[in-house]
Amino acid sequence: MSDSAGSGESGGVAGTGQDAEADNEPPQQAPSLPEGDSLQVREASEEGAPPSAKRPRVSEGEQGLEQAAKPIRMHGETPAEADLLQEDPAPPTQRTGATLQHEEEEVAVSGGGEEECHQNGDGGRDAPFEEGEAKPEEEHNGNRSADSPSEGQHLSLDLTQNPQMLTGSWTEYSNLPENYLKGCKWAPDGSCILTNSADNVLRVYNLPPEIYSYNWDLLPEMSPVLRMAEGDTIYDYCWYPKMNSLDPDTCFLASSSRDNPVHVWDAFYGELRASFRPYNHLDELTAAHSLCFSPDGTQLYCGFDKTVRVFYTERPGRDCEERPTIVKKQGQSGIISCFGFSPCQSVYACGSYSRCAGLYSCQDGTLLALLPTRHHGGLTHLLFSPDGNYLYTGGRKDPEILCWDLREPDKVVFSLKRNVATNQRIYFDLDPSGRYLLSGDTEGMVSVWDTQTAPPDGDEELLQPQLRFQTHWDCTNGISIHPFMPLLATSSGQRQFPWPGDSEGDSASDGEGGDAVMTPLEIRQDNALTLWWAGPLGPATEGGQEPSAAVVEP
């Protein structure tokens, strides 16, 4: 198990909860499903495997141009693995696609020639917090990938067949009772995964290098390379959108937790880099319930009760712009629980626990449109389509994901049915083309919808999933699609209530309360992060390795 590089003590952040593992507890093997289920989970890494070595120090001479000319060794990477990734003479910005193409010549790597949509703001600053320069003489436990893919370089998802389970992390979450996960998010450059869990620790996992060469039989259980502990329940977290592994100054993320300011964590070293301190009208520190960087990364949007506060990324502290969502008793009420930015217009969307969504101008926060209240529960997640014409919204204890046509904001194009019997966030995600939408549910299933099969006339109807497959025993609350590879990351778990009783509770403050009432015999905890391959199968499957997930007809 990799120790944490960032104790979270810098900047006054306590490092509690980082090393809560029980030393005497045997390594947990991947659980097997009861008879009748076909989900096969890979066993934990062999006991005899040598421990991962810490990443060597980076000298001054390895910085600059040389750093751009060769890949950075990942944490725990052996020299043989490093040589494997360096065999391809292609530049770092193309190595990922080239490596996969070398291993599987039939795989076509599509080059993106489309022009980028207009981004909000000037978009000219990729390295804020200039005073916090990278520390080349410190040991790295950060999330460094050997590749920095160029924009527009993608391998297409193949969702006509069963995704194949590759590896995951489950022992990490088995040492504390009910340490369920609360989502997972790929880094913008695809080099690593960020998770949130009930122990209030953010974990960063490197993408295993064996995936690039299809050596899937050698994949061990994943271990986090960074742990960043918050002091209380984590409400929300997000990556800096311009994050690039080859530029340490851009490697950071933001998180918000109860009774704490918004923290900015260095994803290269695990240290606290900066804090944003929102205060209410009584000059009391108040916590943000949702976070989102603007697409150019210059601003950080924070959601509060009937208010959005906007901080400038390069200016930590308490100075911010306040944008009330209700003016003269008109507008969007409730706690702002989620954000989304249009990829092609200077518009952002806010979802709230009042069961509605609003569209606002990025320039001054003017309300442009308020969508009708169609959800049965407070909104917990929303996404824009890549062309910016559609908005997808989902709520807690709400069985539907709704697709809105923003050219006619009062109109629902179609709805997607999923099983959501919990108050916690159940994330969904769109593939880079915007065609496929994927979402988990409280039964551990992942559903895949082809949004292009929607009726062209726009008549609202229930869109049936193209594919459903089992990923976990318990609630699949998080799903994230890799930005350029056919990889899926899923996270599972929920708050369990072992005895009958009132499970409703008031969880409006964080939206993270699971509401399944179970007897002890019915509880089947499955708290894990899992990686799935959803693309063309490489040489690893020629030896008889079969996909581990079962197709379940809708």
Describe this structure in words.
It contains three helices and 33 strands. It is 4% helix and 29% strand. With 554 residues, it is mainly beta. The radius of gyration is 22 Å and the shape is globular.
Helix fraction by DSSP (H/I, runs of at least 4): under 10%
General shape:
globular
Q: From the helix content, strand content and strand pairing, which structural class follows?
A: mainly beta
Gyration radius from CA atoms, angstroms? 22 Å
Distance between the termini: 40 Å
Total DSSP helices:
3
Strand elements, count: 33
Structure, briefly:
By secondary structure, the chain is mainly β. The protein has helices spanning 65-69, 79-86, 95-103, and strands at residues 164-169, 181-186, 192-197, 201-206, 226-229, 234-239, 252-257, 262-266, 272-276, 290-293, 299-304, 307-312, 321-324, 326-327, 330-331, 336-341, 347-352, 357-361, 367-370, 379-384, 390-395, 400-405, 412-417, 428-430, 436-440, 445-450, 462-463, 467-470, 476-481, 487-492, 496-497, 516-517, 529-533.
Features:
554 residues; mainly beta; five-stranded mixed beta sheet; four-stranded antiparallel beta sheet; 3 helices; 33 strands; disordered N terminus
Topology of this structure?
Layout lengths: L64 H5 L9 H8 L8 H9 L60 E6 L11 E6 L5 E6 L3 E6 L19 E4 L4 E6 L12 E6 L4 E5 L5 E5 L13 E4 L5 E6 L2 E6 L8 E4 L1 E2 L2 E2 L4 E6 L5 E6 L4 E5 L5 E4 L8 E6 L5 E6 L4 E6 L6 E6 L10 E3 L5 E5 L4 E6 L11 E2 L3 E4 L5 E6 L5 E6 L3 E2 L18 E2 L11 E5 L21
Parallel strand pairs: 23-27, 31-32
Antiparallel strand pairs: 1-33, 2-3, 3-4, 4-5, 6-7, 7-8, 8-9, 10-11, 11-12, 12-13, 14-15, 16-17, 17-18, 18-19, 20-21, 21-22, 22-23, 24-25, 25-26, 26-28, 29-30, 30-33
